[in-house]
Amino acid sequence: MSNTKVSMEDIVSLCKRRGFVFQASEIYGGLAGFWDYGPLGVELSNKLKAEWWKAIVTDKDNVFGVDGAVIQNPKLWEASGHVAGFTDPLVDCKNCGARHRADHLAGTDSTDLVELTRLLKDKTCPKCGKKDLTKPRTYNMMMKTWVGPVEDESSVAYLRPETAGSIFTNYENVRETMRAKLPFGVAQIGKAFRNEISPRDFIFRVRELEQMEMQYFIKPDIQESTYQEWRDFAWQFLTKNLGIKESNLQWHEHAENERAHYAAAAHDIYFNYPQSFKELWGTHNRTDYDLSSHQKISGKDLRYFDEQTKERLTPYVIESSVGLGRMLLAVLVDAYTEEEIKGEKRVVLKLKPELAPYRFAVSPLLKNKQELVEKAREVYQALKKKHGNVVWDDNGNIGKRYRRQDEIGTPECIVIDFQTLEDDTITVRDRDTTNQKRVKVSDIKES
Ligand code: ATP
Questions:
Q1: Of the candidates 202, 198, 226, which has an alpha carbon nearest to the alpha carbon of residue 214?
Q2: What is the arithmetic mean of pLDDT over 143-154?
Q3: Which of 136, 186, 223, 319 would give a disulfide with 284, using CB separation of 3.0 to 4.6 Å?
Q4: pTM for the full predicted model
Q5: Sheet order of strands, 265-272 included
Q6: For residue 323, how far is its CA from the centre of ligand 1 (angstroms)?
Q7: Which residue's CA is minimally distant from atom 7 of ligand 1?
Q8: Span 75-86, mean pLDDT?
Q9: Which atom of ligand 1 is nearest to the CA of 280?
């Protein structure tokens, strides 16, 4: 078995070849930082979302879901600090006009402009090679639009840069309608937009992303234990629910100069992406920063009345935040295997069976034999009724079908042959071992 690290080209090529991810508006040359999910990408990402939602909302008694609007009153983003502080450091090349993330170019996690100026002193532009870079400056990453027919300053609005915003503004609505007591959480899955200076690494750094976020509202005295619980949740989810290998994951604690403007503590889980270990999932202690700030700017009292102590307090928030695209990419990279088995080379996605876009592929041995096709259709319909995600595959010879299904991670391929017509048994071929066994049709229908 090969253990060499998978390259991003391999993943991009598999995603395109098999219908996971396409370049957005590809026929027009694409648009940097935007991607479309194809039929299999949608299946996989829906499963990831469903798994996360079940673990974080359905299986818990005190976490509730919301689905907020992408565009909100711009005051929300003033209160959250994004209008002033959602910035990345940027340098321009005076020679070729290319823009670069100053911290990436300097090879540091620091976003301090003085430090960056020092580190960038002798750097050249990676695009044209000239030593003609501007001084680093900050750049706001929120995407702007106008609401209504008049395009002026008073109608400016932003596409949300994170989903958390409408969780904070709905904190009181959820608390009241759900009669929730601290601690409780509010979760959301949705699109967010960031005008990244240099989108790259396929779906790792994009301008339109989907986030899965949960804000857990607590009394401040349990901030440390709750922070630890949500760190554990993220690690468990990745390793147990998604089956990602621990060796592909690492903790990374943010240094002070690296933390977002709202965070008192931040621990990321890094995944071993083809480019390097990079951020996948963040757990942050946002303290009472957001609710305090929303109280100040909106003038609404968002304090919580503690019935035991008869006091009012502004809850603290522990946040769990992960990008769906980065999760999907991690799952694909972790599962991608090139190996030689019984003298043949193959690419196989060793996905957890529950995550595979298709649970079974069903094939008649020959597609021009009516009796085989009819029998295969019957098995296919029965499995589809039970599992939903079953694919019919009668294209090419059996060897080609297996290779195709291996590449998309289908755990089992079922073949209906002449023996099926005699004794009602079928061949089930296992993706990982490639072993085949004969079982009764009734057994597989029960599975
Ligand atoms: P980075 O440092 O990589 O820019 P971040 O620290 O700004 O990320 P957060 O604001 O904490 O990220 O966002 C939460 C999660 O959303 C991240 O852990 C990541 O999974 C995802 N995410 C953030 N920015 C992007 C992006 N441009 N493209 C894809 N996913 C993203």
A1: 226
A2: 93
A3: 319
A4: 0.93
A5: 63-65, 184-193, 208-218, 316-323, 277-287, 265-272, 249-253
A6: 6
A7: 260
A8: 92
A9: 20
List all residues whose CB is within 6 A of at least one atom of ligand 1: 162, 194, 196, 205-206, 209, 211, 279-282, 321-323, 325-326
Please name the residue whose Cα sits nearest to atom 28 of ligand 1: 205
421 has pLDDT over 80: yes
The answer to whether 139 touches 89, Cβ cutoff 8 Å, is yes
CATH 3.30.930.10 residue spans of the chain = 3-79+163-333
- What is the CA(161)–ligand 1 centre distance, in A? 10
Sorting pLDDT into bands at 50, 70 and 90, what band is 270?
very high
Top-level class of domain 3-79+163-333: alpha beta
* pLDDT of 1: 42
Distance 414 CA to ligand 1 centre (A): 41
CA-to-CA distance for 130 and 98, rounded, in angstroms? 11
DSSP 3-state of 90: strand
Beta strand spans in 180-276 (E):
184-193, 208-218, 249-253, 265-272
| CATH class in words for 358-445 | alpha beta
Cα dihedral sign, 190-193-197-203: positive
Q: Contact 266/253 with Cβ under 8 angstroms?
A: yes
Residues 6+ apart with CB under 8 A from 12: 21, 202
Domain limits, CATH 3.40.50.800, in the chain = 358-445
